[in-house]
Design a protein that fits this description.
heterodimer, A: 9 helices, B: alpha+beta, 5-stranded antiparallel sheet
């Protein structure tokens, strides 16, 4: 199984370990890129494709855990699999809380690493799809007129056209026109569909 | 005013009968006859001079002469003063005839004489106190004032005299002041017998002027008012100018006579006294000479007497001396039989002359030590040389005392011994002190010995004899060498030989065999006693048992070695994560590669090239893991240190690998600055690793405390004159100056959980390698460094 649209980044200061991981992961048809340190990783350009990061905890300069935090701060959401030659529970807890996919202790079982990589890539893929969807919805939301944006919370709250007209001080007929425009522009098939979209965009219901 | 007019008639003085018509209550204006005034002053001065002169005279005189001078002087002076006043009164002329009541005049004269007598008496005394002079001047001043006013009162005229009381008081005060001045001047001038009389004359003028001033002040106090009442003219006398002149002349003559007599007398006395003094001196001189001659004679006589006595007593004395000196004195015939024993000898031994003579005195020797007494005694006689020996002699009460016997032969012209003379001195106290001292030397828990300059031994105390079980005879000379441990023998004899040859103090640790055949460690010390020229007289020394100390030292060394190992294990415990990491890293690679291989075998398209690659990496990583493990095992092994030639940079690198995780965990950046081409050092690899781990861990921990600065650790190696230098510097808070001296002490720590052994052990490790571990003051952080000698230098040693 070869997935051209995904890549596995490995950051470990031990070249021997790096090479072994690359060999293993490539044997399952994944692309692998190797880095000796966090800085090396940050300084290189990456394709914006589905990816995950196999990160050694102990690294020269910035440690793996610190690097995880730095990525989060920079809003780089890449799934991380930690590997360490010597891990302890507090370290594991910290890594997992910060959103790590897996925490593996060296020497690890090959299948564990490969499974973790699959999970991580899947997670990244999902995240990327969700992000793409939200980006589309945001784009549609941006195309709405101010009046339509005003109407949206009221519509998703389940108010009748008459009620909405009273609320915003216009005629029921006008509301009706705006409402159909809103559904069309947002690409919603039905009211429930619109409600779901609004939820993704984080728009709150307008209480009557 | 005729009604009040009266004729003043002086019936008794027909010559002076005048008619004066004066209206009553008219103030009579008087005028002065200035000639008289001048004369009165002259008389005052003359009287003053006489008084000053007489004061000296009265002072010098004694007994009856003094009384006579006092009386005569008082009269002369009294006349002078009185006359002056009287003349002063006469000088005052009123437009009325004035006569004088002579009894009052006489009374005034008497007062004058008394006041003068008082004044002369006062100033002629030995001392003149302040109180006395005040009192005297009060009396004298009052007397003069009295004289003056009596003179005034003697005036008889047809007028009423009134006195202005203020001027009267002023005149009295002046009289007293004048008296004070006069007394003081007279007292001060009374001794002035020689030299110019100018001072005296000047003083006389001042006094005369003062007397006159007083008088004329007194005169000024009186105002005469014409009165119709005729004055009582009984017993009055009128002074004709001639009489007046006569009285003045007489006065001056009297005064002159007094002064001249006084001076002449004084001069004569003065001369007589000088001659007298000269005579007396000469007599005294002669008397002294005579006394001296006498004394000399007496001494000579006494001396001659004494010499004669001495001669006479000489023989008695010699006998007395021989009998009383605190020694037994004897003389013996050449065969040894006694022919004289002094009294002390007889008293001490209780032997009579008969008993002691001949061979009888030998009975006094102690029966128990024939070797040291009678035989030695006989041998000494046989030798015919002066001898000295110690022996115990029996006292009359049966007690024995130690004696020093000394004898010397007397030979005749042919050299034959005629006689032996000798003394026996009681040395019992000295002997006892020696015994006590010896007991002390034997009681001290120390082996003590001494010997002649040649390095042999001739004395050792009981402690040494008891330890070795050897007698003094056996130990004497070279005998002591037999108790040396065979392994120490050459070293000890060589060192002792050097000390004996050079006179340097001896100090060696050596094993001595005890009575049980066991050896114990001793610290042997010896020092040379020298005479004033620096020549060695004797050697003195001690052997101190240091077996227990030695054992303790070994125990301590072992304990420290053990502790060092414990520290190492503890450090490893702290580093267990690092160790695990070091091992797990290659293991991870191995497992991963092995899995890859398995997968390759499982798949149909096995790539043999890739397989070979993976397998060779597995081999490499396996070797790597094994190396890590043996390194750790070496570090934890407890074994004797092993010195090999090591490259210090390699050790630094090994340690940094081991500590990498610790550095990362504590976010410490490590910088190594390793000098190229460093000489190799002879060291125990593990121990050096331990030292470096310790220094680096200390640095890491120091920086853990400080969060406000970058944590940087620098490990540097460089060439050093001694060999190599290794420095470990951190950027922590540094070490306080006052603690710097103590950080190498065992159990000293600045860490909350430290036990304070790390640096202490590191220090002893470096020292044992012939290097030096020290702290170097730096502005920031702490810098510890150690040096190690290069192998080439150690070989030269």
């Amino acid at each position: 199984m070869t997935d051209q649209a995904s890549i596995v980044f490995v950051v470990d200061d031990d070249p021997s370990v790096r090479r072994a991981i690359k060999r293993l992961v490539e044997s399952v048809g994944l692309h692998v890129e190797l880095f000796g340190s966090a800085a090396e990783f940050m300084n290189s350009r990456h394709q914006d494709i589905v990816s995950c990061l196999v990160l050694d905890i102990r690294l020269p300069g910035v440690s793996g855990l610190d690097f995880q935090r730095q990525l989060a701060t920079a809003d780089i959401r890449i799934p991380i699999i930690f590997i360490t030659a010597h891990g302890d529970i507090p370290m594991t807890v910290r890594a997992m809380k910060a959103g790590a996919v897996e925490f593996l202790t060296k020497p690890f079982r090959d299948q564990d690493l490969l499974d973790a990589i699959q999970v991580a890539l899947e997670r990244d893929r999902t995240t990327r799809q969700q992000e793409a969807e939200i980006a589309t919805l945001r784009e549609r939301f941006e195309s709405l007129t101010p009046r339509e944006r005003e109407l949206l919370p009221l519509v998703i709250s389940g108010l009748l056209n008459k009620q909405i007209a009273a609320e915003i001080g216009t005629t029921e007929a006008t509301v009706k026109v705006h409402r159909s425009q809103l559904l069309r522009k947002m690409g919603a098939d039905s009211l429930p569909d619109l409600v779901r979209m609004a939820g993704k965009l984080g728009i709150p219901h307008k209480a009557a | 005013m005729l009604r009040d007019a009266r004729l003043a008639v002086f019936p008794n003085h027909p010559a002076m009968e005048v008619l004066v018509l004066i209206s009553s209550n008219t103030t009579l204006t008087g005028s002065y006859d200035y000639g008289e005034v001048a004369r009165s002053i002259l008389i005052a001065i003359a009287a003053s001079y006489a008084a000053l002169d007489l004061a000296g005279r009265v002072t010098a005189a004694r007994g009856r002469a003094r009384a006579a001078w006092l009386a005569g002087g008082a009269i002369a002076m009294g006349i002078g003063i009185w006359e002056m006043h009287f003349k002063g009164v006469l000088a005052f002329q009123l437009p009325l005839p004035v006569v004088y009541h002579w009894p009052t005049v006489l009374a005034a004269f008497a007062v004058s004489v008394l006041a003068s007598a008082l004044a002369l008496y006062m100033v002629s005394r030995q001392t003149l106190g302040r109180l006395e002079v005040c009192f005297g001047s009060l009396i004298m001043g009052s007397g003069i004032a009295a004289l003056h006013y009596l003179n005034m009162a003697a005036m008889r005229l047809s007028a009423e005299s009134r006195f202005d009381i203020r001027i009267v008081i002023l005149s009295v005060v002046l009289a007293i002041v004048f008296a004070l001045v006069a007394l003081t001047l007279a007292f001060g001038l009374r001794e002035e017998t020689r030299g110019t009389p100018w001072r005296k004359i000047a003083s006389a003028i001042v006094m005369g002027a003062a007397i006159s001033a007083m008088h004329y002040t007194g005169m000024a106090s009186a105002t005469f008012i014409a009165s119709p009442i005729a004055p009582n003219l009984s017993r009055t006398v009128n002074f004709s100018p001639l009489a007046n002149f006569g009285v003045a002349l007489i006065t001056l003559l009297v005064l002159g006579a007094a002064i001249v007599t006084s001076s002449a007398e004084r001069r004569a006395k003065e001369e007589a006294r000088r001659i007298n003094q000269g005579l007396e001196q000469r007599v005294a001189e002669r008397t002294r000479q005579l006394t001296a001659v006498n004394e000399e004679l007496r001494r000579e006589i006494a001396e001659r007497q004494r010499v004669e006595d001495d001669l006479r007593r000489s023989e008695d004395h010699m006998r007395l001396v021989i009998d009383t000196i605190p020694a037994l004195v004897w003389s013996k015939l050449p065969d040894g039989s006694a022919d004289f024993l002094n009294q002390r000898f007889r008293e001490y031994t209780g032997l009579s002359v008969e008993e002691g003579l001949g061979e009888g005195w030998l009975k006094a020797f102690h029966a128990d030590d024939p070797a040291s007494s009678v035989d030695a005694w006989r041998a000494a006689f046989a030798a015919g040389k002066p001898f000295e020996l110690e022996a115990r002699l029996r006292r009359a009460d049966g007690k024995y005392h130690w004696f020093l016997l000394r004898g010397a032969p007397l030979r005749d012209a042919t050299g034959k011994i005629v006689k032996w003379y000798g003394t026996s001195t009681d040395i019992n106290d000295r002997k006892q002190a020696e015994e006590e001292f010896r007991a002390l030397i034997d009681a001290i828990p120390q082996q003590i010995w001494s010997g002649p300059p040649d390095g042999s031994l001739d004395y050792c105390n009981a402690q040494w004899r008891a330890y070795t079980g050897l007698t003094l005879e056996e130990l004497k000379g070279e005998g002591w060498q037999r108790m040396l441990h065979p392994e120490d023998r050459d070293r000890v004899l060589k060192a002792w030989g050097e000390s004996v040859a050079n006179g340097t103090p001896y100090e060696q640790e050596e094993r001595h065999r005890g009575t049980d055949g066991q050896y114990r460690w001793f610290l042997a010390r010896g020092v040379a006693l020298r005479d004033s020229t620096g020549r060695i007289i004797r050697w003195y020394g001690t052997n101190t048992d240091i077996e227990d100390r030695k054992r303790a030292e070994w125990a301590l060394q072992e304990a420290q070695a053990g502790l060092s190992h414990v520290m190492r294990v503890t450090a490893m415990g702290e580093l267990v994560a690092a160790i695990a990491h070091e091992v797990n890293q290659p293991l991870a690679a191995i497992v991963t590669n092995a899995n890859f291989c398995l997968r390759q075998f499982a798949s149909a398209t096995a790539d043999s090239g890739k397989l070979r690659e993976a397998i060779s990496e597995i081999v490499n990583d396996g070797t790597r893991a094994s190396a890590v493990i043996s390194r750790i095992r070496a570090l934890l092994q407890k074994r004797a240190p092993e010195r090999v030639a090591v490259d210090i940079n390699q050790i630094v690198q090994e340690v940094t690998v081991l500590l990498r995780r610790e550095l990362t965990r504590n976010r410490v950046s490590l910088r190594t600055d390793l000098g190229p081409d460093l000489p190799r050092v002879s060291a125990d690899r593990v121990q050096l690793q331990q030292v470096l781990i310790n220094l680096v861990m200390n640095g890491i921990e120091a920086m853990r405390m400080a969060s406000d600065r970058p944590r940087e650790l620098i490990v540097k190696s460089a060439r050093h004159p001694d060999g190599v230098l290794v420095q470990v510097q951190d950027s922590g808070p540094g070490i306080e100056q006052q603690l710097a001296a103590r950080i190498f002490e065992p159990f000293f720590t600045t860490k909350a959980e430290g036990i304070g052994m790390g640096l202490s052990i590191s220090h002893s490790i470096i020292e044992s390698h012939g290097g030096h571990l020290s702290i170097v003051p730096v502005s920031q952080g702490a810098l510890l460094q150690f040096t190690l000698p290069a192998i080439s230098t150690t070989l030269h040693d």
